[in-house]
Amino acid sequence: MSIIININKAFDHRIRLGIMSILMVNEYADFNMLKEMLGATDGNLASHTKALEKVAYIKVEKQFIGRKPNTRYSTTILGKAEFKKHIQALEKLINKQ
Amino acid sequence: MEPKNYLQDINEIKNLMNKSSRFISLSGLSGILAGFYALIGAYLGYGIIYDHNMVTADGYRAIIISQSGLLSIVIVALTVFLLSVLTGIVMSYTKAKKQNESMWDSTSKRLIINFMIPLATGGVFILLLMEKNLYAFVAPLTLIFYGLACVNASKYTLGYIRYLGITVIIIGLISTYFLGYGLFFWALGFGVCHIIYGTIMHVKYDRMKS
Fold first, then answer.
1. pLDDT in tens, chain B (210 residues)
2. How many angstroms separate the CA atoms of B21 and B24, rounded?
3. Do B16 and A37 touch (CB under 8 A)?
4. B5 within some domain
5. By C-alpha distance, which of B172, B163, B202, B209 is closest to B190?
6. Across the interface, do B3 and A97 touch by the CB < 8 Å criterion?
7. Nearest 5 degrees, angle CA B97-CA B30-CA B154?
8. Cross-chain residue pair A21–B16, CB shorter than 8 Å
9. Is B83 a domain residue?
10. How many domains does chain B have?
11. Collapsing DSSP states into helix, strand and coil, what is residue B66?
12. Which of B20, B106, B155 to mutate to test the interface with A (most CBs of A within 10 A)?
């Protein structure tokens, strides 16, 4: 039963899973890179990044490159740990079949 | 949620991790072509060095080479290098386009930067050696530094480039021991190895995707 608990509701969406996957293997990613990789719309992606930011799984840095605003995302230590747990839970569920 | 979806989730996670951190469009076919260029280059180099020189009692190891002969060798080597790079770029570009990936993104930039660090170090080092008239180590060192560049770049792409790098490093070290047979080891390292690993990569990655 305990593995079911480890399935994290915060990751229970394709886009959020995608954001975390990309940030796990990259130091950071900007909004456009995430958008391109995930094929999401601006609004859709923004709402999912906000949700992940709210539970402190990702960090958001806003800065300017020249005159263009640029939003950079990276995972927090908490986010990394939670994502690992989530994947382990997924794997266990698959292996159980 | 259906259990089937979990498997799909895991697959998608894996896929995104690879796609976002590794440049996956490196063309295997361009490796094969680079190998052929190197073999042609080695053949031309052989002509330049040994046709105009008597093979002495020391065999191939001790040769007298003129300034112009040396220049021709350097030009041949540079041409092979530039042609290989160009082929690699063009073919990876078409492959990326076919797979709907962009060629110039953060993954390819990272790949190139990390490939260039050992390679440029080696290049400058070798030029400095040549400036000091130490030609014997040029061939082994190009192999060794190229191998190191491949190993370093392998973290940012898929495939067998890591093993190619290790093989070339070993050939470079052997070539350091058998000093004077540089051209043969060049043909082996840059020619034969590229063709072998390029073929493996082509069969495994290029064809699978298309």
1. 455 577 888 888 888 888 888 777 778 888 999 999 999 999 998 888 776 665 555 555 556 667 777 888 889 989 999 999 899 888 888 888 887 777 777 788 888 999 999 999 999 999 999 888 888 888 899 999 999 999 999 988 877 889 999 999 999 999 999 888 888 999 999 999 999 999 998 888 766 554
2. 9
3. yes
4. no
5. B172
6. yes
7. 85
8. yes
9. yes
10. 1
11. coil
12. B20
- Domain assignment of residue B3, yes or no: no
Among A36, A1, A25, smallest CA distance to A83 is for A25
State both tokens at B2: 């259906």
Which tokens sit at B144? 């060794």
Which residues, listed in sequence order, are joined to residue A59 by a DSSP beta bridge?
A74
Does the distance separating the beta carbons of B7 and A21 come in below 8 Å?
no
Q: Read off the tokens for B40.
A: 């042609």
Would you say residue B9 lies in a domain?
no
Residues of A with Cβ-Cβ distance to B20 under 8 angstroms: 21-22, 25-26, 29, 33, 37
Residue B86 structural domain: 26-209
The DSSP output letter for B64 is -
Hey, is the C-beta of A6 within 8 angstroms of any chain B C-beta?
no
Q: Is the ipTM of this complex over 0.95?
A: no
